[in-house]
Amino acid sequence: MFMRLVQVKVKPESSDKLAALYAQQIVPELQKTPGCIYASLIQSSSNPDESISLTLWETAHDADAYEQSGAFQRLITEAHPYFSDSSEWKIQLSKDLTLEYTPVSQEPVVRSYTETTPSTDRPSLAEEGRLYIRILSVKVQSGKTEEFAKIYQSEILPVLRNVQGCRYAFLTEGVEERNEVISLTIWDSKEAADVYESSGLFRKLTRKVQHTFSELFQWKMAAERRSNVQVTTTEDLSVKGYHVVSGKTFQ
Questions:
Q1: Three-state secondary structure string covering the chain
Q2: Domain count, the chain
Q3: pLDDT in tens, 134-187
Q4: Fewer CB within a 10 Å sphere, N or C end of the chain?
Q5: CATH number at residue 184
């Protein structure tokens, strides 16, 4: 399976309009696209102006074919009016040769991931209004991705499948960002995910793979043990939560 994330910044007043466009135009387009398994628009629980189109595909070839077909760019163009303006400005000459400064819309950030824990089941979008997606990302040491995946498959995934409220979980590896892994879990609600994290089980499972994290993260842990002071690095484990706004399972 192959995962693609298209991250956008949305104008606060345009969130509902983007959700309607996604449900009425983007989902039907993806439903008829060969190889697309699942699509959902998710909104950050901590930054409401951040949204992601999350799609799952049979293969990377299917996702690339869709992007190259022209449908992807057409839909992005239709959604463009809802994107926030960036801090950059476009400078151009008007017809009377005076300078004009025009805000530039932020372009979507597209990232791709290959599943490292193959499964035959598919995510369900029943009760989509309450579903919650938790995305954990971390950098691992070069050559340690396979070890991370084996531990996830044998020791972490079986536990997650038995946690109340967790309905789907899988692990992916970054295509563009080498040595980045993402664990994605879909929950019945944010409350269920919060209970899992606060119970101590998340920390216990993290310790099983912590030795594979990047050299910078290993330095961070050693520094914290020596100084008893929390240290922050650019390669810290990241956990972000998203509410499912709209979406559908196709196959």
A1: CEEEEEEEEECHHHHHHHHHHHHHHHHHHHHCCCCEEEEEEEEECCCCCEEEEEEEECCHHHHHHHHHCCHHHHHHHHHHHHECEEEEEEEEECCCCCEEEEEEECCCEEEEEEECCCCCCCCCCCCCCCCEEEEEEEEECCCCHHHHHHHHHHHHHHHHCCCCCEEEEEEEEECCCCCEEEEEEEECCHHHHHHHHHCCHHHHHHHHHHHHECHHHHHHHHHHHHHCCCCCCCCCCEEEEEEEEEEEECC
A2: 1
A3: 999 999 998 899 999 999 999 999 999 899 999 889 898 888 777 889 999 999
A4: C
A5: 3.30.70.100
